[in-house]
């Protein structure tokens, strides 16, 4: 298996113009807060890597409603620019139309700290929230989703390509949102 190195242009991270300076992050607005009792109050987001046949990855971003556990928006791409999480959020907004004050929670990845993403969140009247650095427990709801999603959809396999992935992901999320029972919701 070939070794992946930083010199490989396919995997090299974009240069950080603020190299050496901390990137400003949003506070964690979920710490100590109970799970919302109504949908469209808190959405949690994350990105995962999906294996591609023949090597390489696809990148899937989701926004999950913390109350209903439904996936309210998603996008999958062959790269993971800021637009990946923004497009997933835009899709959620066109379907859900949440009230002003929605909390949009994520990790501290560069997609979520990007100026364009922060501007989108502010324009919506939403409040950005971020997990503490390196603490996956702060985003446990979406981490739990990833665990089930990968076990149920991939079962150790991979996707032939982007279009096949979009179709399979679309079907699985429709099943997950409409039919799958959730232990956190009393198997409703």
UniProtKB/TrEMBL annotation:
Pfam family, one: rve_2
GO terms classed as biological process: DNA integration
Domain of life of the organism encoding this protein: Bacteria
InterPro entries, per database record: Integrase_cat-core, RNaseH-like_sf, RNaseH_sf, Transpos_IS3, Transposase_IS3/IS150/IS904
Record domain Integrase catalytic: where: 35-188
Coiled-coil stretches: none
Entries under Gene3D superfamilies matching the protein: Ribonuclease H-like superfamily/Ribonuclease H
Gene Ontology MF terms in the entry: nucleic acid binding
NCBIfam families: transpos_IS3
Record protein name field: IS3 family transposase
Organism name: Hymenobacter perfusus
Lineage, highest ranks first: Bacteria, Pseudomonadati, Bacteroidota, Cytophagia, Cytophagales
């Amino acid at each position: 298996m070939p070794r992946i190195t930083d010199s490989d242009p396919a995997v090299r991270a974009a240069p950080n113009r603020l190299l050496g300076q901390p990137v400003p992050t949003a506070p964690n607005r979920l710490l100590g807060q109970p799970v919302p009792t109504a949908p469209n109050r808190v959405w949690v987001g994350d990105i995962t890597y999906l294996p591609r046949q023949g090597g390489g990855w696809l990148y899937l971003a989701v926004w999950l409603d913390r109350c209903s556990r439904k996936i309210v928006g998603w996008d999958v791409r062959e790269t993971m620019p800021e637009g990946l999480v923004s497009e997933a959020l835009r899709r959620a907004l066109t379907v859900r139309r949440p009230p002003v004050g929605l909390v949009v929670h994520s990790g501290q990845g560069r997609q979520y700290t990007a100026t364009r993403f922060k501007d989108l969140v502010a324009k919506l009247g939403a409040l950005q929230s971020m997990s503490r650095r390196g603490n996956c427990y702060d985003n446990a709801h979406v981490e739990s989703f990833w665990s089930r999603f990968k076990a149920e959809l991939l079962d150790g396999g991979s996707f032939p390509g982007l279009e096949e992935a979009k179709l399979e992901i679309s079907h699985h999320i429709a099943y997950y949102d409409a039919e799958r029972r959730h232990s956190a919701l009393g198997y409703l």
